[in-house]
Write a structure and sequence with these properties.
Mean pLDDT: 81
Number of domains: 2
Number of strands: 9
Radius of gyration: 36 Å
Oligomer: single chain
Distance between the termini: 117 Å
Order of helices and strands: EEEEEEEEEHH
Length: about 220
């Protein structure tokens, strides 16, 4: 049994005024708060509670109510290359049929709610009107997710981050690191060690020289 819809939910719409006469139209606009997890997880989403502007057209047809229109909102996320925060305007198209329980997909009456014309179970993919109400949230969520970029970029030519030090390359266009062959790097380290040894030896000799000279004078 389906849970009863709450008419106080801003994403639940009432079709009683529309009626069931095919061809009857109703246009409406509504600003609703974005639900939780409204986007692509950990990539980009419309923050929970931010306004989503709906412009809808409700049309009565034989089998139910056809809902079409647009949803506009502002999504927030981060660039997948340089990880900088970004925002994007998103506009999603909506079109969905909400069916009456007592009509099949051709608008014909059915003997028992929950069964199709052949006596089998209802199609799980169909959405239904419950006591004259329908919930737009699952349709809206799918539409917005499809309209969002899967790999958002701060700019189309974002250069990303330096793989060696992590600096944002757009902030330092000339940034680079000199490539050093690891074999030469080992030799360079050995050379520096030898130089340090020679330096210590020279300092030791210079320090001993005055004492040797005094000893020679005493003789």
């Amino acid at each position: 049994m389906n849970a009863r819809l709450d008419h106080r939910n801003p994403l639940v719409f009432d079709t009683h005024e529309l009626g069931r006469r095919p061809g009857t139209l109703k246009r409406l606009t509504r600003s609703v708060p974005a639900p939780k997890d409204f986007g692509v997880a950990e990539v980009i989403e419309v923050p929970e509670g931010d306004p989503v502007e709906l412009k809808l057209r409700l049309e009565s047809v034989l089998e139910g109510v056809l809902v079409s229109g647009t949803a506009r909102a502002t999504a927030a996320g981060e660039c997948v290359r340089c990880l900088e925060p970004l925002t994007r305007k998103v506009e999603a198209d909506i079109q969905e049929l909400f069916s009456y329980h007592d009509a099949d997909d051709r608008g014909r009456s059915k003997a028992e709610p929950g069964d199709d014309a052949e006596g089998g179970p209802e199609d799980d993919d169909r959405l239904f009107i419950e006591d004259g109400l329908f919930d737009l949230e699952p349709v809206l969520r799918d539409a917005v997710v499809l309209a969002l970029p899967m790999q958002p970029l701060c700019t189309e030519d974002c250069a990303g981050l330096c793989p060696e030090c992590g600096v944002r390359l757009a902030d330092e266009p000339g940034h680079h690191h000199d490539a050093v062959d690891p074999r030469w790097a080992a030799l360079q380290g050995l050379a520096e060690t030898v130089k340090d040894g020679e330096k210590d030896s020279i300092e030791h000799t210079d320090g001993a020289a005055p004492g040797a000279a005094d000893e020679k004078q005493e003789k």
